[in-house]
């Protein structure tokens, strides 16, 4: 029987288990959006994951949405990330980098006063962003011109090249959670006309162009999607239809895995995403959002998914796979330290002392 500890082949990688570490924005980068030794220590502690998907990382300068998130567009960032990849590999782990553009979730106070860009001039309502001047409301973004879009695609391509130069085993393209690629996908935020708006084909055009470009630069490529999720004030009129269409279309690309957030963080939109995606997508399917150990085991044993990505449990349990293997209790994370600077709530969660 396939279970959480059945090895999984992913491209050229042999994963020892199906307990993945989901990408977790933790805002610990150093000045210049450079990942340093603290981030390397954090990931090395969690090298027992079947695969680590490192946090959302800016593909180009001037697109900060979290103030202290890392980038992968400068040589200093490449060298900084090499600390993490080398530490994870020394510990026997495997790690890919999530490539990300925040789109309208960015803020001028984080980006030298520059207005954020998006498919359409629609602001994120009902939320705020952390800035050096405290929490601020989001601003109305500037719609991208069609002739600017090739520059976005090139940014992702170069970021993938830099990620491999930094020693990552591959990359995951962030097409989820209301950020730029997701903003183009969904009809609630993409109200443009022309080649990148209107039909499903047109709304998916940017994502597909990014994937085609990134695939030329990396030996392993994944994609994260969240068609149901309303985070960042985003919706689609037919999320299940969007997911079903896209799952079929992705078979035409050299995509090694599809990472699906199955639920809506806001609790509004409901539906079964995984069944139609599983029926249509022929590659490795990874699910995320709210799984406990028993449900994850059942999902893998039934063949509903090939792996499960855990987020918050990996924050407080750096040795999560071993705890699961031994049936040990799981520690609880402290949300007050999710985005605070320094090691507290980041690298100071203890491992259990297991008897052989």
Notes on the protein architecture:
The chain has helices at 37-45, 75-90, 149-165, 180-185, 200-203, 205-215, 239-249, 274-280, 293-301, 312-316, 320-326; strands at residues 8-10, 13-15, 19-21, 52-58, 95-100, 117-118, 128-131, 134-137, 142-143, 171-175, 221-225, 257-261, 284-288, 307-310. The chain is α/β, with parallel strands linked by helices and 356 residues long. Strands 3-14-13-12-11-10-5-4 form an eight-stranded parallel beta sheet. A two-stranded antiparallel ribbon has the order 1-2. A two-stranded parallel sheet has the order 6-9. Strand 13 (284-288), helix 9 and strand 14 (307-310) form a beta-alpha-beta unit. The protein has one domain (8-337): TIM Barrel, CATH 3.20.20. Helices cover 29% and strands 16% of the residues. It contains eleven helices and 14 strands. The model has no long low-confidence stretch (mean pLDDT 97). The two termini are 25 Å apart. Helix 1 (37-45) packs parallel to helix 2 (75-90), helix 3 packs parallel to helix 6 and helix 7 (239-249) runs parallel beside helix 8.
